[in-house]
Amino acid sequence: MKIIKVTGAIIQKNDKYLIGRRGPNEKSPGLWEFPGGKIEKGETPIQCIKRELKEELNINAEIGDLVIKYEYNYPNVSYLLHFFKITSYKGEFKMIAHDKLEWVSLNDFHKYDFLEGDTPLINQMLSNNLS
Fold first, then answer.
1. Would you say 118 and 8 are in contact if contact means Cβ atoms under 8 Å apart?
2. Which of the four pLDDT bands, split at 50, 70 and 90, describes residue 26?
3. d(C-alpha 10, C-alpha 113), whole Å
4. Angstrom distance (rounded) from CA 81 to CA 88
5. Is 21 helix (H, G, I), strand (E, B) or coil?
6. What distances in angstroms separate CA 86 from CA 34, 41, 116, one per listed residue?
7. DSSP result, 48-103
């Protein structure tokens, strides 16, 4: 099975996390996700998440620790996901890949229809109550 390596950003402000809804021209439009994207050939996961945040949100981010890394299997493809904590960022958010951005508390995550591949991260966040 094909494995696609991707990164995701955990951007926190007080007790809320930034999530984005995939726009109509993206795969799985209307589903919510943590910002990020595919690792390109020759790119490290940290280089990828920095690039993706600039491309998707127009921010320059300082990348912190790797929070979780796991493989998630869909019927025809697997994703190797790397989620990083973002320690700080500069710039004004722009919606490029998303049609909506929201700051959401962990207790309200159940109100959003997330990509299935984000479920293990969300479960860890809920059980550890990351802060």
1. yes
2. confident
3. 17
4. 21
5. strand
6. 12, 23, 22
7. HHHHHHHHHH--EEEEEEEEEEEEEE-SSEEEEEEEEEEEEEES----SSEEEEEE
Tokens of 67: 């929070």
Q: What percent of the chain has pLDDT over 90?
A: 84
Integer distance in angstroms from the first to the last C-alpha of the chain?
Answer: 35
**Which residue is associated with the tokens 């293990």?**
120
Q: In this model, does residue 130 exceed pLDDT 80? A: no
Integer Cα distance of 2 and 42 in angstroms: 18
The residue type found at 130 is L
> What distance in Å separates the CA atoms of residue 38 and residue 26, rounded to the nearest whole number?
13
Mean pLDDT of 58-71: 96
